Structures are given as structure tokens and as C-alpha cells.
Amino acid sequence: MSHDPTAPASSPFLTEAHHLFRATMHRFVAREIEPYAAAWDEAESFPRALYERAAETGLLQIGFPADYGGVDADPFFGVIAAQELARAGCGGVAASLLSHTIALPPIVAAGPTAMKQRVLPEVLAGRRIAALAITEPECGSDVAALNTTALRVGEEYVINGSKTFITSGMRADYLTVAVRTGGPGKGGVSLLLVETGRPGLTRTPLRKMGWWASDTATLYFDAVRVPAVNLIGRENEGFGLIMRNFNRERLGMAAGCIASARLCLEETLRYARARRSFGQRLVDHQVVRHKLADMAMRIEASQAWLEQLAWQVMQGEDPVASICMLKNQATLTMEYCAREAVQTFGGAGYMRGTKVERIYREVRVNAIGGGAEEIMRELAARQWGWVAP
Amino acid sequence: MKLLVPVKRVVDYNVKVRVRADGSGVETSGVKMSMNPFDEIAVEEAVRLKEKGVASEIVAVSMGVAACAETLRTALAMGADRGILVETEVELQPLAVAKLLRAIVEKESPRMVILGKQAIDDDMNATGQMLAALLGWPQGTFASKLVIEGDQALVTREVDGGLETVSLTLPAIVTTDLRLNEPRYASLPNIMKARKKPIDILKPADLGVDPSPRLAVLNVAEPPRRQAGKKVASVAELVDKLKNEAKVI
């Protein structure tokens, strides 16, 4: 029997443990997310208890050190998790549920032991929520230009400024915040851990085009004081820590986008087999089944590259440029498939409540967040040495 | 106390089952396979007994093709301690499975065998009962609650009139019903740990059992397609249709 492009193919990279974990994630998503996805998206939130349920499956712990409650696992486990989560067709849930996967890595890499002991086990068990705060109202992709300041006063830092588009910003207990501790440019950036109960911190929720179920906020720091031991890594060396973060984030985003595209194909095929027009099923019209074939072609090519790059990362390589281009390949594939899916659904795809309608609204956030498409192309071109230094 | 938990690899409950074109059985190639859901409940119950300190060791057993090792690995990831795979290409029927299990029981001497009341593939509902008969052990089937008190197992069963509780003297056979528990997820940390747990591989001949089928399947066919329902406008029309179309009154 030939491979059905509505399901992932067998893969030379996957072992028995990967298959077992996929089965666990599949069941978790089918049971605890998918039935509620439409309602949570409309409610612009999901129950906080989902974090602890997710921790029971090991989802939150993937790739974090075992000493702090994590599970040492190769990148394919992250890919599987992202792809199974995407099957709910509700990217906002995954974005908030996994916000710690961008907030915690700097702490793992450079945080003091006491901070690791205090923060990591609680977050990995789903009892506390962590978020990463980099983007500001006046600076996004240009991270080195950020304006939020942290002034060292005795044994404390005093933070002033604001952050925006922060995923899990409203509910987070811990924030990993990029601040300016030194001069202009990337050499003056540091990372600080901020507990959200501290005086002077206020938060405002933001409403979005898609990812409604995710919590997104603007944060205001008005002389927020944190102890100097909350510094993550060395002062003015935060920029490198931020950049190191991106490989894993982009690989996960690409995995999710490709799975969302596959879900569009699956949903469209299902609809095209049931819906009739001009005396036959939609799928019996050549123009419709060719749309499906065009979707499958892009999805399978993207998936193959995703797995190839995950394998390279597993070998200890650092294919930054390729991962940037993979992210674009994935978001463009998702964009194409979401368009063709909603187009095939017609009026039904324009109504709220279907997976393809939600995915259509989630295309742009993926193409902008975690590195905009234009930035990705430029970063890759520079990495490949196509620009005079 | 040692527990034996047989687990069967079946077509996943989400898969739409298709009959093979030649009528020889159900299509299983290229189809997602999983642990029989009733067996998952059996594993969960065994793990809970171990967590309560009632059980000391859980041995999971599966029988069939080499891929059944994956089903065993799921049981190990849920909390079983070790696995036994009885590997054979022969199609196994309940009596053969019961005989193979009897041989394993004689080898392992468990105090209790907990297994699903039936498998969702053929719904035979026979292996537990046959095993009890072969061993001469008491059986508590369709358990919705299980309590161990000393050498007694109190099994609450869902019967037509309500609930019935039977008291069995160990060693005994218990088969699980849906409402006994809600099985846990095979979590990532436990999947990683399960990779190191041992699985012994045996052949039916090692256990002195001839597993050849005693029943011959002549033909497997899809159930006849149900016709779409009809809406009627009045009671008179309903009676007319029941009389003249359905011919049931």
C-alpha cells in the first residue's frame, strides 16, 4: 500500500521509543485538547490545569536536564510533540503551553545553580509558567536595539521599560527579560529573571488575528527591582544567549507548521469526499484533487527536510542557515495549504469553528514570530557568506 | 506478590477496519496497531497494586509476531517490570493463547493473572475463562473494582441487575471491564526507562505448546450496509410502512 500523505510516513530516524511517545502525544491531544479547541479559542484562554496534565506525559520536560526534572531526549521527540500538538488545529494552546521552551534555555545554559533549582523543576512539572520577554513596542527583529534598561543599584537591578507580544505574558510566574545593562548595540544586552509578583510590573492582554487561545501581553516595568542574583549569565552577554535559543524554537515552529499544513490536507480531503457539487463529489473534480496533490507535494518535501535537519542537530551540528530556510519553507507551505483548504471548503471554511479556518488565521504569526521570513532569508544569506563582511 | 498481565496487539481503536478483498480476514498491513484497550486497563490496575505495595513484580506477556514487542514496551513504559514475548507467525486463537499462558504461569508462578475481558479485534471474550479452566483457578470476570485482602481478591462485576461482588481465593484470574480505571499515559521519562527493561523471547515450542488453530475461518465479510432512515409525516404512514415495507407488523 502506498503511503497516505494525510499521515506521517515511516522514517529512518525514528526508534521504538519515538513511536511510543507519538502514541502518547496523539492520545493526549485527542483526549485533552482537540475536543475543547474551538471553545478555548473563542474563550481566548485554556485551563491552567492543562500544564500539569501535559507534564504527566513528559511533554513539558523534553530536552531539559534530568537533574532539574527534565528528560534528556533527542530533537525528534520535540518534533513529534510539536506535530502531534498541531493536530488539534489550535496553535494558540501549544504556543502558551510551551512558552517555557523559549524562556528556560538561557537559564539552563547560563543561570546560577540556585536559580535552576528554584525555577526549573516547578516549571517542568507544570506548576509554574515561564515566558520570554524580548520584543518591545519600538524594537522587534532588531534585538540589539532594545531600550528597556536595568540599572545596577547595590545588590539589585532596577528595570524600566516595556515589552510586547509576550506569549504567556499574562499568566507567567517567571519572565526571562532582555534588558540593557551596558552601552548601545548587542554588547550592552543582559538577561534577567523577573518574578511577576514584583511591585512595579503591570500587564495588559492583547487581542490577536489568530492563536486566540494563547495568552499574549504587553508588560510595563516601572522601577521593578530584582536581586542581582537574578542575572542569567554574565552582564552584557545576553545577546548570544538569545541567539542560541532560536535553533530549537525555529525547528519546533517548522515542525508545527508542517503538521498544520498536513492537517489542512487531511481536513480538505475529508470535506472533498463528502461535499457534492455539479452532481459529483468535490474530489471527483480534477481541479480539486490537483489542489490536494499540490498540498501533499509541499508537505512531504518540507517534512523530509525537517527530519534531515533534526538529525543534523542530533549529530551536534549547528545548521543555523538551513533551519532559517526550513522555517520559511514550513510557513510558506502552511500558508499555501491553509489558502487551498479554506478555498476548497468555500463558505464553510470562512465560518468560525473549523480547523482550517483557525489555521488560516494562524499563518501570519508563524511567518512573523520566531524570526520573520525576510529576516530568515537575510540571516541565511549572511551565514552562507553571500554578503561582504 | 507477582502479577502476570497478558497484553494483545490489535488494530488501533481509531482505525476504520476493512475486510481483505479475498475474505480471509481483516486488513492489518499498513494499519496502526496498539495495545488492546482492555489490556491497558489491566496493566494500569497491576501498576496501581504495585504502587500500593500489594504487588511486588509485574510481568507483561504478549504473543504473536515480532512487532508485539512494541506492545510489551508500552506495558513496560506504563510500569510493568519485564516482558515475555512468545513469538510466532501462527494465527493465535484463544485456546492456544490460554495454553501458552498456562505454561508461562507454571514457569513464573504469579499469584494473579489480570487481563482484558476481551480484545477489540475479534471480541471473543474467552482467553481469561479458558485459562482459569486450564489452571483450575477461580475467576472474576468483567471487574469494575478490585480489592486484595490477604489471600482473597474481591472482584466487583457489572452484571445486568447491578453490581455483584465475588470473593476469590488466590491464585486467581481477573478480567477487566471498562470502568475499572483510567489508564495513565506512557510518559516520556517512563518510555526512556522502559528501553532498559528486559524482554525474554520464547517460541511456543519452548513452552511445549502446539499453537495451530483449531477453528478454520471460512469467510470474513463486511456487515450488510444499513439503509438510510426515513422520516414519516404521520402515525398512519409509520404503521403503513412497518406493515407493507418493513413487514414487521
Give the tally of β-strands of chain A: 10
Residues in helices of chain A, as a percent range: 40-55%
Summing up helix and strand content along with how strands pair, one would put the structural category of chain A as alpha+beta
| Approximate shape of chain A | globular
Topology as H/E string of chain A? HHHHHHHHEEEEEEEEHEEHHHHH
Number of helical regions of chain B: 6
Oligomer: heterodimer
Question: Strand percentage of chain B, roughly?
Answer: 25-35%
The total beta strand count of chain B reads 11
- Mean pLDDT across the residues of chain B is 95
The helix tally of chain A amounts to 14
In order across it, which strands form the biggest sheet of chain A? 1-4-5-8
Instruction: Give the fraction of residues assigned to helices of chain B.
Output: 25-40%
Gap from first CA to last CA of chain A: 52 Å
Distance between the termini of chain B: 60 Å
Shape of chain B: globular
Low-confidence segments of chain A: none
Q: What's the average pLDDT of chain A?
A: 95
Radius of gyration of chain A from the CA trace?
21 Å
The major β-sheet of chain B equals: 9 strands, mixed
Give a written overview of the molecule.
The complex is a heterodimer of chains A (389) and B (249). Chain A has 14 helices and ten strands. Chain A has helices at residues 16-32, 37-43, 49-57, 75-86, 91-97, 100-103, 105-110, 113-124, 238-274, 286-314, 320-345, 347-350, 355-368, 373-383; strands at 130-133, 149-153, 156-167, 174-180, 189-195, 201-205, 216-227, 231-232, 276-277, 280-281. Chain A has a four-stranded mixed β-sheet with strand order 1-4-5-8. Chain A is globular. Chain B is globular and about 65 Å long. In chain B, helix 2 crosses helix 5 and helix 3 (94-108) packs across helix 4. With 249 residues, chain B is α/β, with parallel strands linked by helices. Chain B has helices spanning 37-51, 68-78, 94-108, 127-135, 188-194, 235-244, and strands spanning 2-6, 9-11, 33-35, 57-64, 82-87, 112-116, 139-149, 152-159, 162-169, 172-176, 199-202.
